UniProtKB/TrEMBL annotation:
Lineage of source species: Bacteria, Bacillati, Bacillota, Tissierellia, Sedimentibacter
Catalytic activity from the UniProt record: 2 H2O2 = O2 + 2 H2O
Enzyme class, first EC level, given as a word: oxidoreductase
Cofactor(s) named in the record: heme
Function: Decomposes hydrogen peroxide into water and oxygen; serves to protect cells from the toxic effects of hydrogen peroxide.
Sites of the 3'-histidyl-3-tyrosine (His-Tyr) crosslink: H333-Y356
Organism: Sedimentibacter hydroxybenzoicus DSM 7310
GO MF: catalase activity; heme binding; metal ion binding
Keyword Protease: no
Keyword Ion transport: no
Enzyme Commission code(s) on record: 1.11.1.6
Record's protein name: Catalase
One record GO biological process: hydrogen peroxide catabolic process
Length: 691
């Protein structure tokens, strides 16, 4: 990555390859296997400084885990503007389309511990650090545009409720338990966010295939001092796509690092993830023109009412060199802003402006976390702050106070016209009061709008998620409260949940909200085959001509074919050439693939047939594309070939169809019940040999 931040980090990078072993003081050592003892079988001596240094460092290697967003990964990249935003903001990095701004992004889950799985049902963090020439700007975003509460004072309560229950510390990384749903039923401002959390948005296929939202309403300020309300958006170039629930649970066991590895491998392969950076803009005079309060963090701005203006692109093009030094030590803060970007009175945002600094102080050992290489701004910083844990700056001046004559009044403040930061002069008045505006009291209209906007399969997934989560709640009273609450969102949905979890259907009239926002449905997202993994199952004697035709088409479509066979030994085709498998049936699984192509071969034995049928079955049940060669089509269950996204290969037309099927990701109109029906009727194909 050719940018200033990478050059800045170079001074901190150390390659130990080929170097002599030394202590942290630079002393070369003759031995690193044995501690210093009084005789070969004697006690270790206290004077062994090398042992003490090594063990002491090891004992202190770990820093406190993040309370939330503990499980994550990150990557470096760059941001480039499409058009100047000078009309709206004086932020330097939003002025010149020819300037590339280095960035660092950290993706994360929220509720789980650092050792939890990637694919759990949860909100995903999407935090970006822009290393601008005016200082660091942090956009601390999520993959959902709203949040569980309206006021930050309730954040500890919510996190306590969603974390594992304190008596047993289970379940891990899951909200399917009593305390979470008790909180939700008694804090109904959470209704909208819960709809998102129960939707497919909570189980993204990849960090490269999820949206990012700034959540809060911020302000842009231009050179003339004019303010515009703004919400931030990040839209993935590959579209917004998700796993299905059964997959997430299996992937958590098969590959708990699924999303981490996906991001790292994509960047290593040169498939650099891209996100378009957009803004929704609302003139200050239109603050009260909508049917909700724009400062309410449980509300979104429907894109059909306020379009997203795409203003730039983010590209992730470099993996980290050291996970701890970069991903674990990176410190974000919504209060890290630059001139031209300011806050609003969103009460959740206001609380975060305090909380994030307080968090970094305990995690990173003191007030100098800004000097850690991953957090250090590109521009030099000068102020009167001194000392503290882990201070790296060596201040040579004798002056550490503001008003002075010995240093001619420096470091000095600068005016707003010279680039100094000045807060927007919003007029504020009112009595000191612990209360909430009446404009924040509608909790269900946008929750209903979200549900109304979903496709039929997305609605089913939401209902199934509720049935699973609420079905795990032991308290019948809490289950009843949840059902009654979500009767305000959609009566039919609540009725089905009630029937499933063994409580009464909600009483009263049907939910009264009818508004929709098509932009909220993943069914309307971009659909491309790029980077999707296609498992290609082969065995000795496979048809070389057919295989090469399919493989070339897959590469042309920019998918990622991965060869699977019974062993990792080279597999010879009918034309004499060999393919080296990447995986065996033991080392991978159909849930880790986005599609499968089964070509088999004349030497497909009974054990391999069993594995192939397992791959076909799982792929089919998860609505993913399947391509099988004509000569092994009998491995498909009865009537499976007639279903959407299933293709029997007998020419180029079928190859093109398969590529198109991959582009669609999932085939929701497929009848997955035919497999169960076949088993019940005894018509399932028997295991057979194709020798």
């Amino acid at each position: 990555m050719n940018n200033f931040k990478d050059e800045q980090l170079n001074q901190f990078r150390v390659d130990d390859m080929g170097k002599d072993l030394t202590t942290n003081q630079g002393l070369k050592m003759t031995e690193d296997e044995f501690s210093l003892k009084a005789g070969e079988r004697g006690p270790t001596l206290m004077e062994d400084f090398h042992f003490r240094e090594k063990i002491t460092h090891f004992d202190h290697e770990r820093i406190p885990e993040r309370v939330v967003h503990a499980r994550g990964t990150g990557a470096h990249g760059e941001f480039q503007l499409y058009e100047s935003m000078k009309e709206y903001t004086k932020a330097g990095f939003l002025q010149n389309p020819n300037v590339k701004t280095p960035i660092f992004i950290r993706f994360s889950t929220v509720a789980g511990f650092r050792g939890s799985a990637d694919t759990v049902r949860d909100v995903r963090g999407f935090a970006i650090k822009f290393y601008t020439q005016e200082g660091n700007y942090d956009l601390v975003a999520n993959n959902m545009p709203v949040f569980f509460m309206q006021d930050a004072i309730k954040f500890p309560d919510f996190i306590h409720a969603v974390k594992p229950e304190p008596r047993t510390e289970v379940p891990q990384a899951s909200s399917a338990h009593d305390t979470f749903w008790d909180y939700i039923a008694n804090n109904q401002e959470s209704a909208h966010m819960v709809m998102w959390a129960m939707s497919d948005r909570a189980i993204p296929r990849s960090y490269r295939m999820m949206e990012g939202f700034g959540v809060h309403t911020f302000r842009f300020i231009n050179e003339q001092g004019k303010a515009t309300f703004v919400k931030f958006h990040l839209k993935p170039a590959l579209g917004v796509h998700s796993l299905v629930w059964d997959e997430t649970q299996k992937i958590a066991g098969k590959n708990p690092d699924f999303n981490r590895k996906d991001l790292q491998e994509a960047i290593d392969c040169g498939n650099f993830p891209e996100f378009e950076f957009g803004v929704q803009l609302l003139a200050e005079e239109d603050e009260f023109s909508l049917d909700f309060d724009i400062l309410d963090p449980t509300k979104l701005w429907p894109e059909e009412d306020i379009p997203v203006k795409i203003i730039g692109k983010i590209t992730l093009n470099k993996n980290v060199d050291n996970f701890f030094a970069e991903v674990e030590q990176v410190a974000f803060h919504p209060g890290h802003v630059v001139p031209g970007i300011d806050f609003t009175n969103d009460p959740l945002l206001q609380g975060r402006l305090f909380s994030y600094t307080d968090t970094q102080l305990i995690r990173l050992g003191g007030p100098n976390f800004h000097e850690i290489p991953i957090n250090k701004p590109l521009v030099q910083f000068h102020n009167n702050q001194r000392d503290g844990y882990h201070r790296q700056t060596i201040n040579t001046s004798n002056i550490s106070y503001h008003r002075n004559s010995l240093a001619n009044g420096t470091p000095k403040t600068v005016s707003e016209s010279e680039g100094g930061y000045a807060h927007y002069q919003e007029k504020v008045s009112g009595n000191k009061i612990r209360a909430r505006s009446d404009s924040f009291k509608d909790h269900f209209s946008q929750a209903a709008m979200f549900y109304n906007s979903m496709s039929e399969h997305e609605k089913k997934h939401i209902m199934d998620a509720f049935k699973f989560e609420v079905g795990k709640v032991k308290s019948k009273e809490v289950r009843q409260q949840v059902v009654d609450m979500f009767g305000n969102v959609n009566t039919d949905m609540a009725n089905q949940i009630a029937d499933s979890v063994g409580v009464n259907r909600p009483e009263g009239e049907c939910s009264k909200y009818s508004k929709v926002s098509p932009a909220l449905s993943q069914a309307n997202t971009v659909k491309r085959p790029d980077t999707l993994k296609v498992g290609c199952i082969i065995c000795e004697g496979y048809n070389s001509e057919e295989f090469n035709a399919v493989l070339n088409a897959l590469y042309d479509a920019k998918t990622t074919p991965e060869i699977i066979s019974s062993t990792l030994s080279p597999v010879k085709g009918s034309g004499g050439e060999e393919q080296v498998p990447k995986y065996t049936f033991t080392t991978t699984d159909p849930v880790l693939m986005d599609a499968i192509y089964v070509i088999g071969g004349p030497n497909l034995d009974d054990k391999a047939v069993t594995e192939v049928k397992r791959f076909i079955h799982e792929t089919y049940m998860h609505y993913k594309p399947i391509l099988v060669s004509q000569n092994i089509s009998m491995l498909l269950d009865a009537n499976m070939a007639a279903q959407s996204g299933v293709t029997i290969l007998d020419g180029n037309m079928q190859i093109n169809k398969f590529i198109n099927d991959i582009s669609m990701h999932r085939h929701w109109d497929r009848n997955v019940n035919i497999i169960a029906t076949n088993k019940q009727s005894g018509n399932q194909n028997k295991t057979l040999s194709l020798k």
